[in-house]
Amino acid sequence: MPPNIALLGDQGSSPATDRHAQRPPQLSRYESQKRRDWNTFGQYLRNLRPPMALSHCNYNHVLDFLRYLDQFGKTKVHTQGCIFFGQPEPAGPCTCPLKQAWGSLDALIGRLRAAYEENGGASETNPFANGAIRVYLRELKDSQAKARGIPYKKKKKKRKVNEGTSSNFHQSQSS
Length: 175
What we know:
Layout: H1 15-21, H2 29-47, H3 59-69, E1 75-76, E2 98-99, H4 102-118, H5 131-148, H6 163-174
Antiparallel strand pairs: 1-2
Helix pairs in contact: 2-4, 4-5
């Protein structure tokens, strides 16, 4: 038998298995998306005139980035003058713009917030964690809900309380 043919069960490695072993581990969908988002934001900063270094970036640049992304949205958001404003299921087409859904932007900010700190940024200076970003997203959510006729109500957390313990606690407090 020629010496370059491996036998079944032979522990030697072949070029095919060597190439396979050198591949980095597969990233999760979340990690892949976070990396893409981080690279996209970096590209956005580099394309500004003049280009912006990440170290000089603040929440205003993040807000500008979110507004920039609006042009690539796929969610119909009715304007106040539209006959379908406030209707969850419009009867026909209209010329209202397509925008980014607030939920997509909220998830994006969450990924960018994590990526910023993973890439060496301090949590105290994280522009994605600024209160102005939360206010912007909350206002966007409210305006889109109103325009689309979809009420968003905050879900209350259910408390797991032992009924016997709970009533005894309340009785002892009122006595």
